[in-house]
Design goal:
The complex is a heterodimer of chains A (about 160) and B (about 425). Chain A is of the alpha/beta class. Chain A has three helices and seven strands. Chain B contains 18 helices and eight strands. Chain B folds into two domains: about 30 residues, no CATH class; about 350 residues, Cytochrome-c3 Hydrogenase, chain B (Orthogonal Bundle), CATH 1.10.645.10. Chain B starts with 12 loop residues before the first helix and ends with a helix. The chains are: A alpha/beta (about 160), B mainly alpha (about 425).
Chain lengths: ~160, ~425
């Protein structure tokens, strides 16, 4: 199945576009950030694959100088019962990814969560607000440079 | 006297007046009563700290915005600075209505990362506690949806059954709610003969007791009229919104990870995947009701086929050694010291493992860079995704049905907010 997915994607997008790896039988594809919506739409609409459920979407902080932030898409197919994981990386100074809410509506809250936790901006998102943290919060808690104990003064507390 | 005209825009006068900083509002159209109602986060019927902003036209809901995050504890951040073993107690606090199932889901994901296979007895026990957790969670849902539509007795009766289950957990695990029963590569301790007897007694009596409770509401006209055709979500919409678990099966989708992507010993078991067609609150209730009966069947099969033997995988560098051996043997003492202080040494890689929890697909994602702490852990919590479908279910519902629809969705804020 993993071979079939790769073959179909290579046929559609050309083999130079995608990087793939396999670990414990799980297929991970690394997709360039400008192709992510097209790849998602193709995987959802292809009649043999039909990845019709976006099980999860979340951010990843690699803490590297280049391509620091990743966005991971976890796709599931009700037809074949297979999973595939897509990853795309963005630069720290320009963390912009096109939204996939047009492909799966469920991406709405997942992308809000990713924005809340990592500060990755999803262009074209209908309602990109914070979801867990207060609206006026200025930091992104799941970034690796955010300390576990929090940042003093970042939440408005009563005066002594 | 002014007559109502029809070309008045339906935008709320109150909102417009508030925007204009004008607090005195005069209505031209007496029928215009668009109202924003805030429900929660401290509302007895929202099952935790879920906040809903509902737009009402009369008594009809025209729009809804759910707000989550009131129980956010940052578990994913915590996981990054704790070892794989240290995180197990936190999984109890995710879906606090079925903590045993969360324990199982977490260790299965870690074991997939490490490549550990547990002995058959551990697998049977894990399957059994997952199903017992499912029964206890669904019992809670059955009681609370009854209470949401005004049938208080069901709550009392299902809680009586749930109490028996918690007594079993106390005997089996040593704790009633915060179980932390599983360990990486095994379980905390084996099932005692007394616990086995208690489980047998429970599943022998359970069908009759459940029938007693279901008789109260299954043919109750008030219950049916409050749930039948209420909170409908179509099959396509549910898939698009990523709904999983009983809520998806109530829309006529035959999808159960226990059957489609089997884990533990589900492949060997004989059970039915319960699917209903309605997509409404009643169908969601019926799916859970029938699932409890299937779970009871599964537990009986597991008890009958329970193999004897060890409950720990033999992987000294990954599985915590037994306490009595730590105190008497040098090797085990060293391993215990290393595992507790520095964690296990996982391979570099990323995995995702999902189980069919009582609310839906409960999955854990790990990105390991080879150190004792996960570089990134992501909890795929079913309640978070299911709550996102609330606006679709509440469309054109009555305000009094909102609590019943939340009850039929059965979200747990502990896992939705992480």
């Amino acid at each position: 199945m993993n071979a079939l997915i790769l073959e179909k994607l290579n046929k559609q997008f050309g083999s130079s576009v995608l990087e793939s790896s396999e670990f414990r039988g799980e297929l991970t594809l690394i997709v360039p950030v400008d192709k992510i919506v097209d790849v998602c739409r193709f995987l959802k609409e292809d009649s043999d694959l039909r990845f019709d459920i976006l099980a999860d979407l979340f951010g990843l902080d690699m803490y590297t100088p280049a391509k620091r932030f990743g966005v991971v898409y976890n796709l599931y197919s009700l037809k074949t019962h297979y999973r595939v994981r897509l990853k795309t990386f963005v630069e720290e100074n320009h963390p912009h990814v096109q939204t996939v809410t047009g492909v799966w509506s469920t991406a709405n809250w997942h992308e809000r969560e990713t924005f809340d936790m990592f500060g990755i901006i999803f262009d074209g998102h209908p309602d990109l607000r914070r979801i867990y943290m207060p609206d006026e919060y200025e930091h992104y808690p799941l970034r690796k440079d955010f300390p576990l104990m929090g940042i003093p003064g970042s939440l408005y507390l009563p005066k002594k | 006297m002014e007559t109502a005209t029809h070309d008045i825009p339906r935008k709320s006068k109150i909102l417009q007046a508030l925007e204009d900083q004008n607090t005195s509002v005069t209505f031209v159209d007496p029928l215009e009563n668009d109202l924003i109602l805030n429900m929660g986060p401290q509302h007895p019927a929202t099952h935790g700290v879920l906040r809903l902003l509902v737009r009402l036209d009369g008594e009809t809901v025209t729009g809804c915005v759910p707000e989550v995050g009131y129980l956010h504890r940052g578990y994913e951040k915590l996981a990054e600075s704790s070892t794989y073993h240290e995180f197990i107690p936190h999984t109890d606090r995710l879906d606090y209505l079925s903590p045993l199932a969360n324990n199982v889901a977490y260790v299965l994901a870690v074991e997939k990362l490490l490549g550990i296979e547990t002995p058959p007895r551990a697998q049977y026990l894990r399957t059994m506690i997952s199903e017992l957790a499912r029964i206890s969670s669904h019992l809670m849902m059955m009681g609370s949806i009854g209470m949401d539509v005004g049938a208080l007795t069901v709550w009392m009766w299902t809680f009586r059954e749930r109490e028996k289950l918690y007594d079993i957990f106390e005997n089996l695990v040593g704790a009633r709610f915060t179980t932390s029963y599983t360990r990486i590569g095994g379980l905390a301790h084996d099932m005692t003969p007394e616990a086995e007897q208690m489980i047998r007694k429970f599943i022998d009596e359970f069908p009759a007791n459940l029938e007693e409770s279901e008789k109260l509401i299954n043919t109750n006209r008030i219950f049916i009229e409050r749930t039948d055709g209420v909170g409908v979500i179509s099959r396509e919409e549910a898939i698009d919104l990523g709904v999983t678990g009983p809520c998806l099966r109530a829309c006529g989708v035959n999808q159960d990870l226990r059957r489609t992507n089997p884990y533990l010993v589900y492949e060997k078991l004989d059970f039915n995947v319960v699917v209903y067609d309605g997509g409404d609150s009643l169908a969601r209730y019926y799916v859970r009701l029938q699932e409890m009966k299937e779970s009871q069947k599964i537990v009986r099969q597991l008890l009958d086929g329970m193999p004897k033997g060890d409950i720990h995988a033999f992987k000294p560098k990954k599985v915590l050694p037994r306490k009595e051996r730590v105190y008497t043997k040098m090797e085990e003492l060293i391993h215990d010291f290393m595992l507790v202080n520095f964690g296990i040494d996982p391979p570099v890689g990323e995995i995702y493992h999902a189980v069919e929890g009582s609310k839906g697909e409960l999955g854990f994602y790990f990105y390991s860079n080879g150190s004792g702490n996960p570089w990134r852990m992501k909890i795929r919590s079913p309640s978070f995704v299911n709550i996102q479908a609330l606006p679709a279910m509440l469309r054109n519902a009555m305000i009094s049905d909102v609590v019943a629809i939340i009850g039929s969705l059965d979200p747990v804020m502990g896992e939705a907010d992480k």
